[in-house]
């Protein structure tokens, strides 16, 4: 587990915070398959991770989160993580959906590179670099035996994901100014991209932030600036 130290003493911090919680483990987070719109479930380990994340959050935030400030992705792996962590009441937020990986969906980076005939990197090349010959619908069988339908199409560009993350940041900043504690339960890439928008960085800087399954990070304000308070806890 990678944990950064708080950047300021407790007394110097703004009261309001945005807490980012990534969902627990799935079969595809283990295999490295790109998991965007495909609605796959948590593994048994992922469910345990979610419960433990809830325990850590209760220790770090003993006053908890008001239900009206708990937001989750529309995908069930995020909503199940929120419930297992102890947050049964939540608002579903479409802007928290994971990046639509399009033609990379359900495929590993190595598989995409093989199909594309060249080395492919999501952050460098994006979904738009993949041809329509990779479009289609197919079935994948999870280790549990469950079958999921994978749909490959154009997907979203990084800029499109950053735009919706930026919309969400614009909604969050007034809440932090008001001293609210906000919890977002979602996915690795959208939460990392949201962090770049919080910090006014380039969207592709998100690749420099590691966020493990069922780990949380905290965004806040310090001396008038949006900052990272803790990361990957």
Automatic annotation (TrEMBL):
Residues 30-52 are annotated as: Disordered. It comes from the Bacteria. InterPro entries: His_Pase_superF_clade-1 (IPR013078), His_PPase_superfam (IPR029033), PGM_Phosphatase (IPR050275). SMART domains: PGAM. This is Histidine phosphatase family protein.
